[in-house]
């Protein structure tokens, strides 16, 4: 775990909102997927990808192909979290992303992984990364390792 944890450098900070708490007083499990989404989008913004993907005339868009989460500890209202995100592997039209949620005490509260696929907005089929974008994704992946 320590070795894997040290491979992250990019993170997104967030604060747990009251509306994310369930009847048992901790974060509802479904909200973790929103935390991963928010953090993944922050990473995509850092890479400059959201300008292209978010444009109304964009031909390619990213979609989540799969997403998994392991819950390690309860997360309570008003906690501040750092959600670390790293590109683990770059495929021809997909990327495998890893997630690590850390609380204010520096303890892991969740881990996750997921695949994002770039698809055609017109036909829904995978679209290969351009050579330049693939280089950029791989470079970001290597730079993220501390």
UniProtKB/TrEMBL annotation:
The record's Pfam families line, in alphabetical order, gives:
4HBT_2
Q: Which CDD domains match?
A: 4HBT
InterPro entries hit by this protein? 4-hydroxybenzoyl-CoA_TE (IPR050563), HotDog_dom_sf (IPR029069)
Q: What highest taxon heads this organism's lineage?
A: Bacteria
Q: What is this protein called?
A: Acyl-CoA thioesterase
Organism of origin: Fictibacillus nanhaiensis
């Amino acid at each position: 775990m320590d070795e894997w944890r040290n491979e992250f450098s990019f993170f997104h900070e967030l604060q747990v909102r009251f509306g994310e708490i369930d009847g048992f007083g901790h974060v509802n499990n479904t909200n973790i997927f929103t935390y991963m989404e928010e953090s993944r989008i922050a990473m995509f913004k850092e890479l400059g990808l959201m300008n292209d993907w978010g444009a109304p005339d964009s031909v390619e868009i990213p979609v989540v192909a799969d997403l998994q989460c392991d819950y390690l500890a309860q997360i309570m209202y008003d906690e501040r979290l750092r959600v670390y995100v790293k590109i683990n592997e770059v495929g021809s039209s997909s990327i495998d992303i890893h997630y690590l949620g850390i609380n204010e005490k520096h303890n892991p509260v969740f881990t996750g992984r997921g695949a994002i696929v770039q698809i055609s907005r017109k036909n829904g089929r995978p679209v290969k990364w351009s050579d330049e974008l693939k280089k950029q994704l791989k470079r970001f992946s290597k730079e993220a390792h501390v």
